[in-house]
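#struct-help
A.M.: can someone run this one for me? Single chain, 224 residues.
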Amino acid sequence: MSELLDLRNADGSRTGEVKERALVHRDGDLHGTAHVWLVRYRPDKGSAEVLLQKRSANKDSYPGCYDISSAGHIPAGQDFLESAMRELREELGVEAKPEELHEVFTHVGYAEDVFYGKKFINHEYSKVYLLEYTGRVEDLKLQKEEVESVRWMDYRACLDGIRNATLKSCIFEDEFEKLTAAIEEYFRKTGRPLSCAEKTGTWAEDAQNNLQDWIEEQGIYLRQ
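D.P.: on it. Structure tokens below:
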């Protein structure tokens, strides 16, 4: 028997029904997951980076794809924060205190794919947490059955990669868009505003917008 999960209502509360994980993904039932994003401040760049994990090539879904720093299903009877801390410890070897995990928003995601000839439906209600990590990436203890490797990536470049499909990932685009705002708010509140916090599009879009602003400021009108 595979892991048992609580089925969830639209607001994330338990329905009272419990089901095997494999059947949940077969039938597309709404279930709970915890997402923990590790972030670090880069004062030399006035920016922030997120830690991405590369899923093991042996995973039953999205093998070899970049994913959330640490994430996992909520086993039946457990709560979100408890599961978030457990996944951090198991996947990355990170021991975190409850107060260090900042719940920033909830997200409902839905995706249908096929892996190894079987339909796979992911319908999840997620609580999303931020954890500022100040340790060395070399000190992380990766769970090799789950995680092939990890890498730091500028949060804006990551968003571009997800939007443009240049980053092979299984990250929900709308979740990461909300995450960028949460990252900027977190560092603003801790007295470290990010220098490019308003840039949410691609670098090319930012440059084009800046040029347009300058043209308007100079009173230059281009013939159409």
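A.M.: thanks! The first helix runs from residue 21 to 27.
D.P.: also worth noting: Residues 214 and 220 are 9 Å apart (CA to CA).
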